[in-house]
Amino acid sequence: MSKKKTVILGAGLSGLSAAWHLQKKRIDCLVFEKESEAGGLCRSKRLKGFTFDHDGHLLHFRQRYTFNLVKRLLGDNLLEHKRSSWVYTYDRYIPYPFQANLYGLPPLVAKECLCDFIRAFHQSKPGNKKNLNFYDWINHNFGKGIARHFMIPYNSKFWTVPLKKLTCEWLDGFIPVPSLSRVIEGAGAKNRMPLGYNARFWYPKQGGIASLSRALSGELKNIHTGCRVTEINLKRKEIKTASGDKEKYDVLISTIPLPEIPGLIKDIPREIRLLFGKLKWNSIFNLNLGIERNDLDGKHWIYFPQKETCFFRVGFYHNFSAGLTPRGAGALYVEISYSPEKPIEKKNILGKVKHQLEGVGILENTNSIKAVDMNDIKYGYPIYDNNYHSARKNILKLLKQNGILSCGRYGGWRYMSMENAILEGKKMAEVYIKQ
Length: 435
Description:
Oligomer: single chain
Mean pLDDT: 93
Low-confidence stretches: none
Strand order of the largest sheet: 7-6-15-16-17-14-18
């Protein structure tokens, strides 16, 4: 057993995974979490008979290891789904991915998208994609039609910043790029072959997504919830909590969002402190609604690229699991992206969302709403602009030099799935063991 004292900050998926993998190797660690329960964003709540997550969280697996781990943790409490996702545009629902299902569009729009895709396909020059900004990458891969009718408006709405300011470092297969034959096929009828990393997904049968974090934390010891860290002293190798308690460490694994670090470490070099100011992100306002009806054709989620709706995506909990709602009822989550470049008026957001949900046919009337839950998520997605790579690299280097391994979606400051978060924790445990 290691004699080093290891402290983990944050009991989200990455922090729990790091602790789990360390403790499986008989290495003790202490976990400090500011919230009253473990899980981070991977938490759920019960309200008037409905189970709501902190925004939509689904499990996708690219690696057998992660699937086996989650399956072992959840056992029979895990449902597999074949994705039923859609794009709402031109007052109709188009199967996702948009670029492979042009048949559902108005004929002239479909023709424009197809012809421009064929033109872009034949003009594409391999080898220069790494130098493209995200805006140019979209046009390079999909042509101007698909870019204009879906890719640019949707991603502008999601990221909240001009797409020419974004690099392509985050892509990692998140956006499916179909072959020419698949696009031509999808211009005539719905594509039957699955496309994209999330063509299949998994979700707990009972308890919401919190079932996963509870299963992980249930196998761990020394998790201290309600303990907000207020200071990290690099020289003393010591953390301080809001209650005034202090804890020494030899190794510190942090999943705290990187922009929060300057407020915790006083003696950061000025040049590094300036780098923290270059980190950008969008925020997500999540509105959960419990409603009377659940007759929404088995849809899992819908993308909304048009400016007429403030939300970019709506998902349906009751189609993930019937155990999340009272019998015959439905539940949905609404996601609105915002940032300093694109602020929102939170005071009136509920009424605005209700009206717009009625406009697209998801709500019959506001009287059908039986439960309302709101979550304002400060750190949504790191923004991959031209400052991102250098700033992140040098910040993580400084932290590592000072004995801090920073990991996870926000500690590592990367766009990642739940699977990635679990694997990040595993990686940190392995780095620790090799030291």
